[in-house]
Write the structure tokens for this entry.
Amino acid sequence: MLFFIALLISSASHSCRYLKAMNFNIEDTKNMWINMLEWRKDFGADTILKDYKFHELNEVLQYVPQGFHGIDKEGRPIYIEMLGRVDPKKLLRVTTIERYVKYYVQEYERTLSIRFPACSIATGRRVDSNTTIIDVQGVGVWNLTKPVIELIRRLQQINTNYPDVCCLHTDSKFIAFST
């Protein structure tokens, strides 16, 4: 019963994401929620916006072209990443996988606490999702080096704590996500 109270105290849309991610299986949702809370505590996700300084951001953006660019027709922030232009060797010269993962979490937390509320105010209705466009032109198997595979693995582990991260639509050059 306490689990349901905690789940309901968080926002209804946030709670629904966990229920939906677990196909509305209450026991699985409870376990996912508990694991997420433990991960947030261990990782420091609740304080990462003020505690973590990613000084190498400008250099990183040269090798991982990405960022938020406006809103879609429903008022959701649009995130664009040009995966085919990522240069993992140069990326790992200016930062580490660990620091990049922290930056990734920090940006997700910034979206939850700043971007979504700002879009909600601008549209006059609740905005709690975003649109992600990933340009995959130029991506091939040769891009999957050991460090790249490790980074992908780490980001996928993080994504389990954000159950809204992936609904896939594709065409030949782009992958678009509505989260």
Summary: The beta strands are 66-71, 77-82, 131-135, 168-170, 174-178. The helical segments are 2-9, 12-21, 26-43, 48-51, 57-63, 88-94, 97-123, 146-159.
